[in-house]
Design brief:
Length: 413
């Protein structure tokens, strides 16, 4: 498991020590950054209200850290486990306690001296970091990946206009706002958000891959699934009310429904197991076992109407599963109207019909597992990381103050 803070040790070269004569002249001329490392921009801070949990943001952070480390970046992640926390309406999720948080965040930033700052979520940690950066004149980049307007309306009955006003206040001073789908970017642009940049996501196509028929059958046998009828209709994600999961659970489908994920807000797994005895609720799964649940299934169901993208759709496609979802933001950014990798539904009855059609299309060859995987190979990490780094403005911190580094240069007279 990843540690709370990820570091890479690399030498820091002080130009004041390396080029002393030149720096004396620069100092006399009033240069302000003579104590910078030779390679700037390599210290990067990611700020998120969630990490090491089962959700798309945590998965994104895991992969960002891995990919940036491979590029010789030193990365530090600010997340709630580093600070006092308060509970949320999700059983396994706590967020940072906002009281006194700005001072604690300032200490972390000033100790690490990040040259690039990426605020991934709009929670208390994000606000504290944003406020500090604005106060100190540090550039920062944000990400918009959650439909908070839907979330606040669903759980707290707050009007959407209030949510967007709050969100504008968060993102308006960012150097760039990275948006993960074209339809979300268009929607935010129409609402007056500025500095929007499309940030195409990526997935681990080595882990999420096509399984051979032999491997699929072995997994089914080893996990006690052989007694259940195919097709296997798979849902992966938090079992929460805003995910609209009952549209899937109530669909009349042949075969077996598999629900892989932790309990969320609004539902109890125990109660759902009693209410839907024919559905297999596995709870959360991780790593290769999770990848094998994808690979051993037949059709992926994405009933959510509130997700901006849903990385699970991309993971399912990489595993060779056609995707069935509603014709809303997220699914329609992945599945086109004449797509050969899945179907978009207009209502609950249509979701059921499209799920049946997806299974039939697999059987007849109208949809192939290979074609599904081919559709997401372009969601690559090189382009994802490049877009991120291009939109993270570099701020150079002096390694020493001029007074403590060396005496002020004598006048050249």
């Amino acid at each position: 498991m990843l540690q709370p803070i990820q570091h890479i040790k690399r030498p820091v070269y002080n130009t004041a020590q390396t080029y002393r004569p030149v720096n004396r002249l620069l100092a006399f001329a009033g240069a302000q950054d003579r104590y910078q490392p030779q390679q700037s921009g390599q210290r990067l801070m990611i700020v998120s209200e969630t990490w090491n949990q089962i959700n798309g943001v945590s998965t994104t952070i895991d992969n960002l850290v891995k990919q940036l480390k491979q590029r010789d970046y030193t990365v530090e992640v600010l997340h709630p486990a580093l600070f006092p926390t308060i509970p949320t309406n999700y059983p396994d999720m706590r967020i940072s306690n906002p009281f006194g948080l700005k001072k604690r965040v300032a200490q972390k930033i000033e100790a690490f001296k990040p040259e690039r700052i990426f605020i991934l979520t709009e929670g208390p940690l994000g606000w504290a970091t944003k406020n500090y950066c604005q106060q100190k004149g540090l550039p920062y980049t944000t990400s918009y990946s959650v439909k908070w307007d839907d979330y606040f309306k669903k759980h707290f009955h707050l009007p959407r206009n209030a949510a967007f006003k709050w969100l504008k206040g968060f993102h308006e001073k960012a150097t760039a706002v990275l948006v993960i789908t074209p339809s979300l970017l268009q929607d935010l642009g129409s609402r007056g958000f500025k500095n929007l940049v499309l940030w195409r996501q990526a997935i681990d196509t080595d882990r999420f891959n096509l399984m051979s028929e032999t491997a699929r059958q072995q997994f089914v046998d080893q996990h006690g699934l052989a007694k259940y009828k195919r097709p296997f209709y798979l849902y992966v994600g938090r079992v929460s009310s805003e995910k609209n999961i009952k549209s899937f659970l109530n669909a009349e489908l042949p075969g077996t429904k598999l629900v892989v994920g932790p309990e969320g807000a609004g539902y109890s797994l125990e109660k759902l197991r009693r209410q839907y005895p024919d559905v297999i609720f596995t709870g959360p799964k991780y790593g290769q076992e999770l990848a094998n649940y994808y690979g051993a299934s037949d059709v992926f169901m994405f009933p959510s109407k509130s997700d901006t993208l849903g990385l699970v759709m991309l993971e399912a496609l990489a595993s060779g599963l056609p995707v069935v979802g509603f014709n809303v933001m997220g699914p329609k950014d992945v599945i086109g109207p004449d797509s050969k990798i899945g179907f978009l539904a207009s209502n609950n009855q249509d979701l059921q019909d499209k799920a049946l059609l997806a299974w039939k299309s697999l059987q007849t060859g109208a949809i192939s597992r290979e074609e599904c995987r081919k559709a997401v190979v372009s969601y690559s990490w090189p382009q994802c990381i490049s877009t991120l780094l291009e939109n993270l403005k570099v701020h150079l911190w002096p390694e020493k103050t001029p007074s403590s580094a060396e005496p002020e240069p004598e006048p050249l007279m």
